Amino acid sequence: MKIAIFAAGTGGHIYPALSVAENFRKDEVLFFASNRELEKQIYAVSNFKVIHLKVSGFRGKSIFQKMFFPINLLINVFKVIFELIKFKPAKSLLMGGYISVLGLIANKVLFKPIFLHEQNSIMGSANKMASSFTKKNFTSFPIGIKNEKVMGNPIRGNFCKHNYSSQLTKTKVLVLGGSQGCKFFNENLPIILQKSEIKEEIIFQTGNQFSMENNNKIKYKKFIDDIPKLFNDTKFVICRSGAGTIAELQAYGMPAILFPLPNSIDDHQKNNALIYTQGNDNYIFDEYNFDSEYFLQKLNEFNSLDLIELSKKAKKDLHCEAALNIANEIKQN
């Protein structure tokens, strides 16, 4: 069965889409994405056929850019319709972001069945618009929308091979600001971590734009290749709360201190964090109202908790089977 998948913008949209696509043959899948260099790099190693379009979203753009939005939208809709007619997919999957608006319009014109997946705990604008026209709406967390089926967020299988209790001796604490690094983390956390009561080695991912010198307590890395492997030695993580990150933490059962991205649309990272902590915001921090002394106190407090018990509360298995289950639902409906 052939399927078209619309996934662009960030790795948070693209990587779950690729996980679902792996449950189809390569020649059965056609991706639609933007022409951003990062996306081209991600898709280049996937060996799936991809149509890269010159697209960008509406929200957060200048008045001048918004003036040309309808023209750009129309041009791209015609391109998508043309490619869909050539490829002849039986169904389409929308993964959110502006690219999904194109997928929605083109598929409605061609009377193709549409499925949708929302990675975050709050629906993005494009998915919210599309959700009324889909056959099924797959979600990572319960949202309460029509035709909803909570399936989890498809993640890399390596996070599911082990769990927090697989290895009881923990020798590291992990600080992750994302693959590009996090300026706030790099500028504020090292001095606090140095003062902390943490005895384990601290592995701190800085991103390629920052260069920091190792010391007796902290080892800095520009990029970490195999985070799932490192999780086996990790006592807890300090990180953002994007949908993919939360799914990986839940799948492994990894205790975490969370800093939601403050400018995330609709503050969805804060909502993701609250879902992960089951409403307990004791270890969720706002970088705009950051107090270093208070954070040091809470960090030491967290470090002394029964983290095995915390892990059991955090662990959720649904993400590990999400890709296969979503693919099967699409094939069978």
Structure at a glance:
With 333 residues, the protein is α/β, with parallel strands linked by helices. The chain has helices at 11-21, 37-44, 63-67, 69-87, 98-109, 125-130, 183-195, 227-231, 243-252, 268-276, 292-303, 307-314, 322-332, and strands at 3-6, 29-34, 49-53, 91-94, 114-118, 136-139, 148-150, 172-176, 201-205, 218-221, 234-239, 256-258. A seven-stranded parallel sheet has the order 3-2-1-4-5-6-7, sandwiched between helices. Strands 10-9-8-11-12 form a five-stranded parallel sheet, covered by helices on one side.
Return the domain count.
Answer: 2
The appropriate CATH architecture of the largest domain is 3-Layer(aba) Sandwich
Structural class: alpha/beta
Q: Could you give the distance between the termini? A: 12 Å
What would you call the shape?
globular
**β-sheet strand percentage:** 15-25%
The CATH H-level homologous superfamily of the largest domain: Glycogen Phosphorylase B
According to CATH, the fold-level topology of the largest domain is: Rossmann fold
CATH C-level name of the largest domain: Alpha Beta
**Topology as H/E string?**
EHEHEHHEHEHEEEHEEHEHEHHHH
Write out the strand line-up for the largest beta sheet, numbering strands in chain order: 3-2-1-4-5-6-7
User: Runs with pLDDT <50, length 5+?
Assistant: none
